[in-house]
Amino acid sequence: MNLAISLHFANDKERDEFMPVNKKDNLESLKIALQKYFQKTKRKVFVEYILLEDMNDTKEDAQELAQYLKSIGNTHLLHVNLIRYNTTAGDLQSSSGNRTHKFKEYLLENGINATIRKSLGEEIQGACGQLAGK
Asked: What whole-number distance in Å separates Cα of residue 85 and Cα of residue 131?
């Protein structure tokens, strides 16, 4: 069994807006917790990152993510699962396939392990990569 962290944004401003838990446990506290986890376990951690068109899928977002993960250390134990957003009734849109692949390539070029995760269950609105709209 491995630990998985839902990150989705690599800066506190956007995480505060879309992930209210960040106001309590921000990126710095997550970094410290992961560093302690690696010290004790030396086990892999999966970083879940839903790609949202024009919100967190740009080259700058990939740079920010890579920098954040490198600041944690032990990047060989970090693996980013890129998840294409599955459309719901809200306003959010999935990143294009091309943009998703470019994001992944940027991470790989910068020493961050990453894969694009296959999503199942969208047709029943039970898929990974679905967020409730505001």
From this structure: 8
- What residue spans of the chain are helical by DSSP H? 12-18, 27-41, 59-72, 97-109
Digit-coded pLDDT (tens) for 85-105: 887 767 888 899 999 999 999
pLDDT per position as a tens digit, 56-93: 999 999 999 999 999 999 999 999 999 988 877 678 88
Domain holding 48: CATH number? 3.20.20.70
Residue 71 resides in a domain: yes
Residue 134 falls inside a structural domain: no
Domain count, the chain: 1
Residue 132 lies in a domain: no
- Tracing tokens 């199942």 back to the chain, one arrives at 120
| pTM attached to this predicted model | 0.87
131 phi, psi to nearest 5 deg: -120, 145
CA distance 17 to 68: 18
